[in-house]
Amino acid sequence: MSKSAWQLPPGVSRGTWDYAQAEHIARDYDNYFADCQLFEHDEGVARRYFQTPGLVADFGCGTGRALLPLMRQGHAGLAIDLSAEMLGIVKEKAEQEGLPITLVRANLVECDSVADAVADYGICFFSTLGMIRGYENRLAALRHMYRIVKPGGTLVIHVHNVWNNLYDPGGPWWLLKNMWQSARRDDLEFGDKYYPYRQIPQMFLHVFRRGEIRGAMVQAGFTMREIIPVAPETYKPLKMPWLFSNLRCSGWILVGQKT
Question: What is the spatial distance between Cα 38 and Cα 65, in angstroms, rounded to a whole number?
Fold first, then answer.
C-alpha cells in the first residue's frame, strides 16, 4: 500500500517502505543472496556468543536466513520485521520444519508491542540498522533492542563502513559530496545513501563510522564485548585488524551486552 511522505513511519524512507512492501524482493531474497558469505560469518559470531539455548529476537529478520539456523540448534525464535511479505516466508519455512516461532510485524523504531526483557539474545544483521533514517531513530531502535533483551543478554549487529566507499568507482567523489551536503542540510546525515535497487528507485541506507555505531550502542545502554572488522568481498574477519582497519574493512560486527 502506497503512503504519502507524512504517513511514513518514523525512520522509514520512501525507498525502505517500498522495499518492505515489495513481494518480488521477499520471494527472491534467498536466491539473490545465495552466495553471500556474510550470513555465514554473522551466524558464526552469534553461535559463539549464544551458547545456552534461549529466545533469539531477530530485529529485521527478513526471510529468516540467520534466525532459522539458530532455531535448528535449539533456540526459540522471535521474528520482527516491517515486511508482511518477509514474515510470511519466515512462517512458511518454520512450519515446514516444525519450528515454533513468534512473528511480530513492527517498525524497529516503534517496537512497543514487544514486552520488556523477553529475549535472551538479539541479532540485527546485514546492516538492517542502516536502513533506518535518522540518528535519533536508529538510537530509538537500539534502545528497544536493549529493552527487549534480558539483563545479561547479548546483541550482535552488523553495519556497513562509510569509508569503504573509497574503493568504489566514484566513491571518493560521493564521500566529498555527501560530506559537503550533510554539513548544509538538516535532512541529510553524513553516510546517508540513496540509490536504485532491484526496481526500488530511491533505496535508503546509512553507512557508519566505527565511533558512530559504537557510541550509539553505548548510548542505548550496551557494554561492548567485541567489535569485529569485516573484510571486503570475503566477509571474513579482516586480516591484520590493527592496520588501518577503519579504512580497510567493509563494515563491522558488533557484540554488546545488557549489563
Answer: 11
- Could you tell me the pTM of the whole model? 0.94
Measured from the Cβ of residue 231, the count of other Cβ atoms closer than 10 Å reads 18
* DSSP structure class, residue 35: T
The sign of the CA dihedral 100, 62, 161, 212 is negative
Calculate the CA 28 to chain-centre distance. Answer: 19
Taking a C-beta distance cutoff of 8 angstroms, is the pair 57, 87 a contact? Answer: no
The proportion of the chain whose per-residue pLDDT surpasses 70, expressed as a percent, equals 98
Mean pLDDT computed over 38-51: 89
- Contact by Cβ (8 Å): 10, 109: yes
Distant-in-sequence, close-in-space partners of 202: CB < 8 Å, separation ≥ 6: 13, 14, 15, 194, 195, 196
Q: How far apart are CA 193 and CA 206, in angstroms?
A: 6
What confidence tens digit (pLDDT) does each residue in 58-94 have? 999 999 999 999 999 999 999 999 999 999 999 999 9
